[in-house]
Write a structure and sequence with these properties.
Keywords: ATP-binding, Nucleotide-binding
Oligomer: single chain
Structural class: alpha/beta
Largest sheet: 7 strands, mixed
Radius of gyration: 22 Å
Pfam family, one: AAA_lid_6
Protein name: Stage V sporulation protein K
Shape: globular
Family: Belongs to the CbxX/CfxQ family.
Strand content: 5-15%
Number of helices: 11
GO molecular function: ATP binding; ATP hydrolysis activity
Length: 313
């Protein structure tokens, strides 16, 4: 990546995860992210990096986590030296299709911020439209305030957030948006709001309230996984379950994923979630095959064959 750092005109930080040419745009000097021995003082960062290392792709998020860690750490050093420090709003927006790791990354960010005393608890409250929107005037504002109260000290993660703006002017979703905007300002250092959803829909959602766009200084873009990344995800799932693919099964799965990615609507393909569903169904199919064959030797117990693979219709 020749120019990994670039500032967008709207002042947002733009991060692209697990893509072939990943781009990280952040208004801070580039920080060396090479592998180094970390002292005990930086065990927090090492622990989070180790967890991120178990995820497929995510190269730019790993760099961004280290940069955020450095910013918070150096701010504490500046404060100890009597220098000026400022609290930065850390509300975020995650854009991408289903199954691209958005919820997983949100949980890790909460854990990091808790360990660094940015958040008092670091827990994750997951919500969707039905959790915020009520049935009568005033009900929505109360439901939204209740969710924010539960998220104090942690992260409020709203998936498919664009659905709050789909009902038009008379829909109670607008009331939820207005309540969120108010509390993002009033309690901006008490919790972090992460809105997630498809890229195009999220761009439209931002246009519904003039106060929304400026309140999300950090934007993550989660591209779809490549075929090889999906295969890596599948193999890691199988290893964890103590299974393996035969050569024919591996070839069949790779060919299927390549076909699905080229023929499916990207917004309807669930990436890692799709692979997980295939693995789980195939494990059950293998169990039925072995039961019928009365074949229970160790090699057969751990091997998924091409005939065992079950793909969604």
């Amino acid at each position: 990546m020749d120019q990994p750092i670039r500032m967008k005109n709207n002042g947002q930080i733009n991060i692209v995860l697990h893509a072939g040419q990943r781009e990280a745009v952040i208004p801070q000097p580039k920080i060396e992210t090479g592998k180094k021995d970390l002292s005990a003082e930086h065990e927090i960062l090492k622990e989070i990096e180790d967890e991120l290392g178990t995820l497929v792709g995510m190269e730019e998020i790993k760099k961004m986590v280290k940069e955020v860690y450095a910013w918070i750490y150096i701010n504490k050093k500046r404060e100890a030296a009597g220098l000026k420090t400022g609290k930065q709003a850390l509300h975020m927006m995650f854009k991408g299709n289903p199954g691209t790791g958005k919820t997983t990354v949100a949980r890790l960010i909460g854990k990091l911020f808790h360990k660094m005393n940015v958040l008092s608890k670091g827990h994750l409250i997951e919500a969707e439209r039905a959790d915020l929107v009520g049935e009568y005037i005033g009900h929505t504002a109360q439901k939204t305030r209740d969710l924010i109260k539960k998220a104090i000290g942690g992260i409020l993660f709203i998936d498919e957030a664009y659905s709050l703006g789909r009902g038009g002017e008379k829909d109670f979703g607008k009331e939820a948006i207005d309540t969120l905007v108010k509390h993002m300002e009033d309690k901006q250092h008490e919790f972090i709001l992460i809105l997630a959803g498809y890229s195009n829909e999220m761009d439209y959602f931002l246009s519904l309230n003039p106060g929304l766009h400026s309140r999300f200084p950090i934007v993550f873009n989660f591209p779809d996984y490549s075929v090889e990344e999906l295969m890596d995800i599948g193999k890691r799932m199988l290893t964890e379950k103590e299974y393996t693919l035969s050569l024919d099964a591996e070839r069949k799965l790779r060919d299927h994923l390549a076909f699905v990615k080229t023929t499916s609507n990207p917004a309807s393909f669930s990436n890692g979630r799709y692979v997980r569903n295939v693995i789980e169904k195939s494990v059950r199919a293998q169990a039925m095959r072995l039961l019928m064959q009365a074949c229970y030797d160790r090699h057969e117990l751990v091997t998924l064959r091409s005939s065992d693979l079950v793909f969604p219709d």
